[in-house]
């Protein structure tokens, strides 16, 4: 078998090009995913007329952080925040994995764990609406609406809007593959 010197050269040139193509493909998918999350959080914040809508993304088993936020004012930013370690445990995770939706009109009047109330106070939250984003392999994240300036009564249409937003994210092929 005779090897042509040019075929070896072409083959080695193809590998870096293929690697670059793969990198560009992943970059485009990431940008599309991020744009969908940004549009979803912005639309929900405006429709719900709340101070903040965030995506809390789980990067490992029940460990996560706020990776996207839509704000009515920059003072409400919590980008990069992580959840309270002692409060979000396997029990809560199992509830959200099962589809739990939690709507709290006023954290000061709701019967919640003291660590949860303190955590929400530290984030300037007065009213809270949490909807899970569940994909086939598990709990991908939480879509969370916060009203910071006072209590907020969540209507059934508010909850449906958030669930629709979560479902949009949960069925996007760029998220399913991330």
UniProtKB/TrEMBL annotation:
SUPFAM superfamilies named in the record: GAF domain-like
Lineage top rank: taxon: Bacteria
Domain Phytochrome chromophore attachment site as annotated: residue spans: 32-162
Gene3D superfamilies, sorted: 3.30.450.40
Record Pfam families: GAF
InterPro entries per the UniProt record, alphabetical: GAF, GAF-like_dom_sf, Phyto_chromo_attachment
Protein name as it appears in the record: Phytochrome chromophore attachment site domain-containing protein
The species this protein was found in: Nostoc sphaeroides CCNUC1
């Amino acid at each position: 078998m005779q090897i042509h010197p040019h075929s070896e050269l072409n083959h080695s040139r193809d590998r870096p090009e293929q690697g670059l193509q793969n990198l560009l493909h992943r970059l485009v998918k990431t940008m599309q995913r991020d744009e969908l999350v940004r549009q979803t959080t912005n639309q929900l914040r405006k429709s719900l007329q709340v101070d903040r809508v965030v995506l809390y993304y789980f990067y490992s088993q029940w460990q996560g952080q706020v990776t996207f936020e839509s704000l009515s004012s920059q003072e409400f930013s919590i980008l990069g925040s992580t959840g309270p370690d002692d409060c979000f445990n396997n029990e809560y995770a199992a509830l959200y994995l099962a589809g739990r939706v939690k709507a709290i009109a006023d954290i000061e009047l709701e019967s919640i764990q003291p660590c949860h109330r303190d955590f929400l106070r530290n984030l300037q939250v007065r009213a809270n609406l949490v909807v899970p984003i569940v994909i086939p392999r598990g709990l991908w994240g939480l879509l969370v609406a916060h009203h910071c300036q006072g209590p907020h009564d969540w209507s059934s249409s508010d909850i449906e809007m958030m669930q629709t937003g979560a479902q949009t994210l949960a069925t996007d092929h760029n998220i399913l593959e991330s």
